[in-house]
């Protein structure tokens, strides 16, 4: 006899997946913005504006994939509470999708997370469970799961939840948008590593497509990805804390695939912030600190290419909306309290093109 519970569950799963599919179909692709700097002739930059997603960051893609992965693995049921550990961006996107599917959501986050992100999760009907010690978020999320919640587990599953072969993943989208550019096969793609999902997807896709494009991870100085990547040491830990949210993890995450990354450029926080400010002057809109880290790494790679007389395109990402950091990276008092003076680095950056 067929268990009526299972039949009901499959119907709900089918409807939930239908909701996710329709959301994806209603959404437009994010823009790829081109930047030409006179000091780098023959080296055009491109930035994919991932802040343009409905939930304001590249985590919109990940959250959609994680819900789909949980549903297709039979781990997520009707009315089940959903939980994840997140520094904020993922929680905002997951809260949005949970609301869409009619599921309660709990975000486990460090108490130090930008207040605006906490407010955003709450505004979407999510509950924030704040922990004082950031590394405790994982144990706390596991505790909720042991009490019956579905753990979306961004850090454990980011690397496998996304279909790296295509299916409009971020790498496929970038290369499609590059197709008509004068140098359609980028010399470098630059991204950060938080869960490692973005770098894993891009690195795999570049190989799958047989491209020569190299992948560079832009990392806050002393972050665990940089430490681990050099020696392929998964036990590596960060040697320095960072104020850049979303990247610069304290430990090597399960989704960090060192072997698909050709270079890691470490960027000091002050420089990342100066570059985030630079982006605001260029685009008239604010982006978060990790977008600044990406820009800093792009400029570093471009300088190296210029020195060697190389030409080629460099592609990177604008990861999230800068409004989220109004009370932190864009607040002079907050910066002064941390002895960060990004304005002192203005001179070391190229003039903003008008
Ligand atoms: C998550 C995140 C990243 C890094 O992306 P991953 O795919 O998780 O490695 C970069 N910037 C921001 C703002 C993020 O939230």
TrEMBL record:
The keyword ATP-binding does not apply. The keyword Lyase does not apply. It catalyses: O-acetyl-L-serine + hydrogen sulfide = L-cysteine + acetate. SUPFAM superfamilies: Tryptophan synthase beta subunit-like PLP-dependent enzymes. It is an enzyme of class 2 (transferase). Its EC number is 2.5.1.47. InterPro entries: Cys_Synth/Cystath_Beta-Synth, TrpB-like_PALP, TrpB-like_PALP_sf. This is cysteine synthase.
């Amino acid at each position: 006899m067929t268990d009526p519970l299972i039949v009901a569950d499959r119907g709900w799963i089918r409807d939930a997946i239908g909701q996710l599919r329709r959301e994806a179909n209603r959404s437009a692709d994010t823009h790829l913005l081109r930047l030409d700097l006179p000091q780098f002739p023959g080296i055009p930059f491109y930035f994919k504006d991932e802040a343009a997603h409905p939930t304001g960051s590249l985590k919109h893609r990940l959250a959609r994939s994680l819900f789909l992965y949980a549903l297709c693995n039979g781990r997520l049921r009707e009315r089940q509470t959903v939980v994840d550990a997140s520094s904020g961006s993922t929680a905002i996107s997951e809260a949005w999708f949970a609301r869409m599917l009619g599921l309660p959501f709990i975000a486990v986050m460090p108490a130090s997370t930008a207040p605006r992100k906490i407010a955003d999760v709450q505004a979407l009907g999510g509950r924030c469970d704040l922990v004082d010690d950031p590394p405790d978020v994982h144990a706390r999320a596991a505790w909720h799961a042991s009490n019956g919640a579905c753990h979306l587990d961004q850090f454990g599953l980011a690397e496998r939840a996304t279909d790296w072969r295509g299916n409009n993943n971020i790498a496929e989208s970038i290369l499609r948008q590059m197709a008509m550019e004068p140098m359609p096969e980028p010399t470098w793609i630059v991204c950060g590593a938080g869960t490692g999902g973005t770098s894993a997807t891009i690195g795999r896709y570049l190989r799958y497509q047989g491209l020569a494009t190299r992948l560079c991870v832009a990392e806050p100085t002393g972050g665990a990805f940089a430490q681990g990547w050099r020696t392929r040491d998964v036990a590596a830990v960060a040697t320095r804390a960072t104020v850049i949210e979303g990247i610069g993890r304290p430990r090597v995450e399960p989704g960090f695939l060192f072997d698909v990354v050709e270079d890691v450029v470490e960027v000091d926080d002050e420089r990342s912030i100066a570059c985030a400010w630079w982006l605001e002057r260029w685009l008239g809109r604010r982006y978060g600190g990790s977008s600044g880290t990406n820009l800093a790494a792009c400029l570093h790679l471009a300088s190296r290419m210029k020195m060697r007389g190389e030409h080629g395109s460099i592609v990177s990402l604008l990861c999230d909306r800068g409004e989220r950091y109004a009370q932190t990276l864009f607040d002079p008092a907050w910066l002064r309290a941390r002895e960060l003076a990004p304005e002192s680095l203005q001179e070391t950056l190229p003039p903003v093109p008008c």
